[in-house]
Specification:
Elements (H helix, E strand, L loop, with lengths): L3 H7 L1 H13 L10 H15 L2 E5 L7 E7 L4 E7 L19 E3 L2 E3 L3 H21 L6 E7 L9 H7 L1 H4 L4 E4 L11 E3 L1 E2 L1 E10 L5 E2 L9 H10 L22 H7 L6 H8 L10 H10 L2 E9 L9 E2 L2 E10 L5 H14 L6 E4 L7 E2 L5 H14 L4 E3 L8 H4 L7 E3 L15 E3 H20 L1
Parallel strand pairs: 3-6, 3-7, 7-18, 8-17
Antiparallel strand pairs: 1-2, 2-6, 4-5, 5-19, 9-16, 10-14, 10-15, 11-13, 12-14
Helix pairs in contact: 1-4, 2-4, 3-4, 4-14, 12-14
């Protein structure tokens, strides 16, 4: 019988061909493109593994692929998603997004980094274990949804309906992860929450000649004035009562963050900047990035923006905003504060539209058994310690599946700083992919012993 490493090496080309099959299948939830075909492909691969599988329908959404395999005193929950971001703009891809290509040791395709690479390698790792180590020493349960890239609007409803499936889970391996700029493996224990909204200002019943501006209010100015009350020039959020909703990081979280490497000069060079906001550097930049909430203007639209001049007084202006949230904020709380703030500052006429399902803040204990097992697995795989992140700077639906069920979680995966998730030329390094298969072996081993 071959060893685990020998089995992976013998099946290297087959594993890569399976990854090519996964990433050649479009599965864009935002465009309803190829979703059922991808769900069926994931289901079939888990069935080939020997898992007990179910394709669980979701009302008004895409089905969840659920699978179980193994037995033992511990249960590991694995969360992934089979939907990916739209590939546009297509002209910026070196090779087409649905035609997987390996060049210079990197695997290029839409979704390979987020999240089909991690999804598949975890299955392949379990296959390699079964073929070389025998029976699994624990039970594994997979939840693979199809709506993560559109905000997971139905995951909470699914979890509440299927709660009995997950109640025995001792820990969760979340869907993403990477090495940092210094080649340190990252273990991420939480996510910020998020609220997506639009603010709309309206004026006359139609666009007017701008000569009417002395007596007819311009909704674009109205919107600008409203926005100016949300944040000041020092980057402080000035929504009434907002500061009182923020819980500071704990001593343990700050201690973990102190170990996060952050080379200010290197990061500034990467973004083509001369300084960060308010000149923050090093540990102060880390604290701001991972522990502070945000209000971000994602897009503004009003009137005429084409070439040349057009003397127009627009009748409508709107802005897209996202709010990244930290403990103890919730989308509902911040939405209520925002409405009260606008009303109190004379902007009761500004309309708020919630455009996507919000997501709650997720934090897992930094000393949980799943995090300790992941640290041990990283040392065994990479021969040096991983960096534990109390939170990512971004958001996701971890709360719905993990925190509200008291399941501690950790994220780890095969990405690297130039994986270009959500962007053209998305890629992973092939060597990282196979190292991650070894990491899953070690995680199974150490978590089963925890």
């Amino acid at each position: 019988m071959p060893t685990f490493d020998e089995y992976v090496a013998q099946n290297r080309e087959r594993f890569l061909n399976e990854l090519k099959a996964f990433t050649s299948q479009p599965s864009v939830a935002a465009q309803n493109l190829g979703m059922r075909e991808m769900a069926d492909r994931v289901l079939a691969r888990l069935q080939k593994l020997g898992a007990q599988t179910r394709l669980i329908p979701v009302a008004d959404g895409f089905p969840v692929v659920y699978a179980e395999i193994g037995s033992g005193p511990k249960t590991l929950l694995i969360y992934d998603h089979y939907d990916v971001q739209p590939p546009e703009p297509l002209e910026l891809w070196t090779t087409p997004p649905w035609e997987p290509t390996i060049r210079e040791g990197k695997f290029f395709a839409r979704g390979v980094a987020d999240n089909k690479g991690d999804l598949l390698l975890r299955i392949q790792a379990v296959e390699s274990w079964l073929a070389t180590e025998g029976a699994l020493p624990l039970k594994i349960k997979w939840v693979i949804e199809g709506e993560e890239e559109i905000g997971s609007p139905n995951l909470g409803k699914f979890v509440r309906a299927q709660r009995a499936l997950f109640k025995d889970a001792d820990g969760c391996l979340w869907e993403f992860g990477a090495k940092d700029s210094h080649e340190n493996p990252m273990l991420i224990c939480g996510l910020k929450g998020i609220l997506f909204i639009e603010l709309h200002a309206r004026g006359a019943k139609r666009d007017l000649h701008s000569g009417a501006a002395p007596i007819i209010e311009n909704p674009a100015w109205r919107l600008v004035w409203a926005l100016s009350t949300l944040k000041n020039e020092r980057d402080e959020i000035t929504i009434d009562g907002y500061a009182q909703t923020v819980r500071p990081p704990t001593a343990l979280e700050l201690e973990a963050a102190a170990h996060i490497p952050f080379d200010t000069a290197l990061e500034l060079e990467k973004y083509g900047l001369s300084q960060f906001i308010n000149g923050v550097r090093d540990f102060e930049a880390v604290k701001k990035l991972y522990f502070t909430p945000t209000v971000t203007i994602c897009g503004l639209q009003s009137g005429y923006t084409g070439p040349g001049g057009k003397t127009v007084l627009p009748n409508h202006a709107f802005v897209k905003l996202d709010f990244r949230l930290v403990p103890d904020q919730t989308p509902e709380l911040i939405l209520d504060l925002l409405r009260r703030h606008l009303d109190a500052h004379g902007f009761a006429d500004i309309e708020i539209q919630v455009t996507e399902a919000g997501e709650h803040v997720a934090r897992s204990p930094l000393d949980s058994a799943i995090v300790r097992a992941a640290q041990a697995a990283a040392r065994a795989t990479y021969r040096h310690d991983a960096i534990v992140y109390p939170s990512a700077a971004g958001s996701g639906p971890m709360y719905e599946l993990c925190q509200q069920l008291n399941i501690p979680a950790v994220s780890a995966g095969c990405g690297y700083p130039d994986s270009r998730g959500h962007a053209p030329d998305e890629n992973i390094r092939v060597d990282d992919y196979f190292e991650s298969i070894t990491f899953i072996r070690e995680l199974i081993r150490h978590f089963a012993r925890a």
